[in-house]
Amino acid sequence: MITLTCKVLSIDEITPNIYRILLIPEVTCNFRAGQYLMIIINEQKKIPFSIASTPRETNCIELHISASVSKRHLCAMTVINFLLKNSKIVVEMPQGTAWLRDDTKRPIMLIASGTGFAYARSILLTVLKQQPHRMVVIYSGGRTKNNLYYLSELENLLLQYSQLTAVPVIELPDENWTGRTGSVLSAVMQDYNNLEMYDIYMAGSIKMVKSACELFCTKRHAHIDHIFSDALTFLRDQS
């Protein structure tokens, strides 16, 4: 891990309350797909964000931040305001152990909700480039369709890679939504009777990841050693 100064290249609101941040690092920093960085607000405050770009993109770091004035996103809104006021920031990276394992051909399942797609995106784009024949399925969830800000990118990838399957799921559908509804975990449980052969990568709350591990391992034969999530790492450290 190193401390790195980055130029804030752009801050774009791609859907209501979801921002795409592009940073230009002053020096190249190597990382693995699925890792994250810490934005340093001050000595006492460092806030983690998944890296949405891939390790091949050495000149630019992409982040996705969900932020609003609501209490739920107040911390992230503080980061957006911090970025708007500063042309350069300092980050610590790389961090996290839930990176892509690319020394295997096991099929991959990616599970993400909201801006957790940033984590899944880095892994997805990397594995499609490095292992174009490896089977990948991605379950992505959100409260409403507005939270699925990446659908057009996924649709383009589906046209290019026949081994890729994408399952978007929303909790509160409107009358025009024709896709899956409910939670991403429920969708996985409905679609799979056996997850024994999968490497599973998850971005979500500690509660969601804990529930997923219990369900997948006890009811769908998944191996805990093949489930990767920084929330899971946190749970292991606490036990």
TrEMBL record:
Domain spans labelled FAD-binding FR-type: 1-101
Keywords, comma-separated and alphabetical: FAD, Flavoprotein, Oxidoreductase
UniProt xrefs under Gene3D superfamilies: Nucleotide-binding domain of ferredoxin-NADP reductase (FNR) module, Translation factors
Record flagged with keyword Lipid biosynthesis: no
Source organism (scientific name): Baumannia cicadellinicola subsp. Homalodisca coagulata
EC number assigned by the record: 1.5.1.-
EC class: oxidoreductase
Protein name in the entry: Ferrisiderophore reductase
Signal peptide: none
UniProt superkingdom: Bacteria
Any one GO MF annotation of this record: oxidoreductase activity
Alphabetized InterPro entries for the sequence: FAD-bd_FR_type, FNR_nucleotide-bd, OxRdtase_FAD/NAD-bd, Riboflavin_synthase-like_b-brl
A Pfam family it matches: NAD_binding_1
